[in-house]
Design brief:
By secondary structure, this protein is of the alpha/beta class. Helices cover 37% and strands 25% of the residues. The termini are far apart. A five-stranded mixed beta sheet has the order 1-8-7-3-4. Strands 2-5-6 form a three-stranded mixed beta sheet, with no helix packed on it. Helix 1 (3-15) packs antiparallel against helix 4 (74-94) and helix 4 crosses helix 5. It is built from five helices and eight strands; from the N terminus they run H-E-H-E-E-H-H-E-E-E-E-E-H. It has one domain.
């Protein structure tokens, strides 16, 4: 196992303690550019450039709050989300994607033309995990847990445009 796989696996394990979601996968083509005060987001922002996929989830504090409800299914959802992200890691990496796992509130994608697209993870409070795809020219967000097969289909659909 190389260092990239170990790093990704370590992040997956950390993320296991930080997510809850609806098991339906929802798709959104909305790209929101947000004019944000840099001081506000400096510590809660992931910056990504080029061809990338970001797997995003809730943070530890949000998880702790949601996990208090034993019937919420948070642990099972976290397990599924992380399991399927790990299952597709090598395949997506081999397709040239830079992969990230993040609980950052803001995810800023820098496009090839130097424009930036910012996603606010908390904008849709009902959908708190998902994936953001970027090829450097376009981006697309998918919400919810998806199986490894579903993630690979999303990637193919994203590339067809």
């Amino acid at each position: 196992m190389n260092i990239n796989n170990l790093t990704f696996l370590s992040v997956l394990i950390l993320m296991m303690t930080s997510c809850m979601l609806n098991t339906k996968t929802k798709e959104s083509n909305k790209q929101t550019t947000i004019d944000l005060n840099p001081k506000t987001i400096a510590n809660d922002t992931l910056h990504v450039k080029g061809k990338a996929i970001v797997f995003f989830s809730i943070n530890q504090q949000e998880y702790d709050s949601l996990a208090q409800d034993e019937n919420s299914g948070v642990i099972e959802m976290i397990d599924d989300f992380n399991y399927y992200a790990n299952e597709v890691h090598d395949k997506l990496s081999s397709l040239g994607y830079h992969l990230s796992m993040s609980a950052a509130r803001y995810i800023v994608l820098e496009m090839d033309d130097s424009s930036k697209v910012t996603f606010d993870r908390l904008k849709n409070k009902d959908e708190i995990v998902g994936r953001i795809y970027s090829d450097g020219n376009n981006s697309k967000i998918y919400y919810g847990v998806a199986t490894d097969i579903d993630i690979l289909i999303e990637e193919q659909e994203f590339n067809i445009k």
